[in-house]
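yo

u said u wanted the structure for the complex thing, so here. seqs first:
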Amino acid sequence: MTWEIVIGLEVHAQLSTSSKIFCGASTAFGAEPNTQADAVSIALPGVLPVLNKGAVERAIKFGLAVGAHIAPRSVFARKNYFYPDLPKGYQISQFDLPVVGNGQLVIHVPASGKTEAYEKVVRLTRAHLEEDAGKSLHEDFHGMTGIDLNRAGTPLLEIVSEPDMRSADEAVAYAKTLHTLVQWIGICDGNMQEGSFRCDVNVSVRRPGAALGTRREIKNLNSFKFMQQAIDYEVQWQIDTLVNGGAIHQATVLFNPDTGETRAMRSKEEAHDYRYFPDPDLLPLDISEEWKEQIRATLPELPQAKQARYENELGLSIYDANILTASREMAGFFETALAASSPDKGRAGGVEAKLCANWIMGEVNAQLNRDGLDMTQCPISAQQLGGMLQRIADNTISNSGAKEVFRTMWADGGEADAIIEAKGLKQVSDSGTIEALVDEIIAANADKVAEYRSGKDKLFGFFVGLAMKASKGKANPAQLNEVLKRKLTG
Amino acid sequence: MFESSLQQLGSALRARQISSVELTQLYLDRIAKLNPELNAYITVSPETSLAQARAADARLAAGNADALTGIPIAQKDIFCAKGWLTTCGSKMLHDFVSPYDAHVIARFNDAGAVNLGKTNMDEFAMGSSNETSHYGPVKNPWDQARVPGGSSGGSASAIAARLCAAATGTDTGGSIRQPAALCGISGLKPTYGVVSRYGMIAFASSLDQAGPMARSAEDLALLLNAMAGFDERDSTSLQRDKEDYARDLAKPLNGLRIGLPKEFFAEGLSGDVAHAVEAAIAEYRKLGATVVEISLPNSKLSVPVYYVLAPAEASSNLSRFDGVRYGYRAPDYTDLADMYEKSRAQGFGAEVKRRIMIGTYVLSHGYYDAYYLQAQKIRRLIAQDFTEAFRQCDVIMGPTAPSTAFKLGEKGDDPVQMYLSDIYTIAVNLAGLPGMSIPCGFGAANNGNPGMPVGLQIIGNYFDEARMLNAAHQYQLATDWHSRAPNGI
Amino acid sequence: MFLANADVRKVARLARLAMGETEIETARSQLSGIFALIAEMQAVDTRGIEPMSHAQDVSQRLREDAVTETNQRELFQSLAPKYKGAPQVEAGLYLVPQVIE
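structre next:
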């Protein structure tokens, strides 16, 4: 009998505001402990929250990007529990009326050993604004825990999916798509090491067609690799438990990357009773149609729309379109390079697009990887690359010449035309010159010509070699082939 | 000097007939003499006050003085004042020296007023007799065997005993009006949102409102001018044009329509209070007002509704007192949970713990709808009653409290009896309306005990403070209850 | 509305208030009285009534996203509670008994 895996995600995306969600303290990462913990962050008696407009804008932006409902009125609630990193004894969050509801995300699940690549729609239940807690540091305080409240009050968007995913691959594809999207629309820096994008994964298993099984929540996964490992382990553990006659109990579990195992948290799992109620210090958040439309106007073209355009208008493959939209920087680089490669055309397409895509996914990516750089640090600008691609397209340089230009550009900078000139990489494409050159060779090798004409086709390569040598390697290969073939045939 | 109005004190200061330092010293001396008996102040800091007085004198000398520059004003210990011990009447904050100023404190500082000290109060403003203060009960200057009311009992007692020119209070369910009534002074709770709550230690955030306490309505208007105003740090602070609350004081009352809620004159109201209030209404008729009976049918539910909503909010507001970053931490504990539980059990007094328990219970799983949500719905019905009533009248009047000041310890064992002291004041907070209390006579003397002050409550429509102050001032021009002082003080 | 000691114990635990058995008994009796008072509102028909959370029907004002606060750690941590005479801060951190995850 088979098992069906059911996965839903709760992702906490830290919103990229400069100040906290309810006060004017900085959100910068890495400051000395508690130096960004102002009166509100440490919950002094008498202080009050005031909502950050930048956080709301980012939430709306996200909602619009996933085609969700933006609540015209949403409400902040208090979630009450005691924990030393939660200075007020409650977290301000949204409960009954979240700012974003009912969206969806299209994910591309890559091919694996078992399955072909496919697309899937994951439904988003909601996304709500809330404040982050501080950090507990357990080391080095002679048996005490140290509390740093710099992070307390940092704005989070908690994005909750429906339990629509059926494998670890789908869960990871969803998380990656979401990760790309939040950075793409500029609401989150996506830095997983710094905790800007944290995933809680709810996992359960069931027999196909059966009711949902009891879920366990894997908390705070901060890498896609760990997510994959944690889900794989957890699923196997749940199946083993059930097969051996055990039962799954709802629990919060942590993943240990060193052992590759998940384990239930040790803290007493007392029945949580968060006593949610509307925060009397905050009024209902009203979002007008007008504001929503203003924000919609600032949305960039989204990855999914770009992918469709690359496929339909530029004739690229799904695979290429996906890679080129892995980040907004990548897509921007591609589009700028493509435009620069064919400045005379309204919109480049077809051959130029494929050439451009191949160069970026090939040489550019490979060189970035070798140098340990990301797209934003690429030493060659998209304009520079486009200039070079233009010279490939108009036959000024050959492919091998282009590689030479690229290497030079990467190392020393400079524009393609200047490098071509300085290195004498220009192809001979002048038909008169090539014809004269071919005539000379034919005249000087009458015997070989005769052999060729009598059927020894293999000699063609011999003539190409001679002609290239005579042109010092600069003859346009396609053109040379064409002329040679014509003249040899007689 | 102790009988002067704020207006008169301001004039004397500006005319340099007296300096702020002299005036402040006069009050400090009087506090030193009388406070050990009355316990109206938790903290007095003569050097700090006198330094402020010197700065005020410089400002007076420079000729850029405000109405309140140089006037010593006492602050309820619920307001955070930078450099001042700010206890909120609790052991939990026994050593909390505030690192910042509440908006109200900053407003008075900007006006050049002198902070004369921090007045005693029920712990975290939870109480109607001032007996829940960790710093001991406050005595009523009219009879020291009796309570001054609460929670702003220290402020009320200090004003009545002339231990300050005026004071601040806060009112969540009657905490300005009820002690004002019991101590024979005037007090005003403004419309919710008129005075910023920033820096005012929260009890029940959707009900808490700061307001002035003084001897006369005229003084209240001057104080409210300083206290009111938009503050961007409080999300519930209302953005309104600045107004002069004294602008209508002199208006005659011809045509003023007074609504008398029949529910406020029913069972539970003591005869002497009813008598004094009825006499006051008769005086208003003489002043040209007309009287109409109105009904606030849901007001009888205001006590139960309040004792769900206020503790619910309080239980959450008081969670920050955990002994981690400031405040009281238990001397001995075994682990984190033990530290929390002991610090809070030892740092909070019985009434505060009781309310935290009520609030925790009504919000907990399975009870929310039956208690919290139901209370919020009835809150709307109560507010709608007032909307309906104000179609028929301009102001509503009635008793502030069902009886005059009761004896210390009299209601100590029975929280429900204590809660019923606020039966006429709570509905106003639930609706967010402005309400005030002014002295309107004295209750019956018995067994050699003097008659205790009675308060007349005036409830206005939203933002109608100027009209209420006008009604109160005209009454105070015609009567002298507000200028009576306790014997022997 | 009658409360059992178990209810009181549960609430005390949720509210992080240490209570001995006699306190629990006293609290039970007082809270029962208060809940009897509160029970008066149960009879009211509130169908169709919108709950009222705030005194004014206004919407949340928003703050521009700007850093306005500066570091006041020294001042704030001077307020830190002491344990056996020692302020419970170290290396800029607030100290609490070990938290177990």
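Chain A touches chain C through 55 residues (CB under 8 Å). Chain A has a mean pLDDT of 91.
cya
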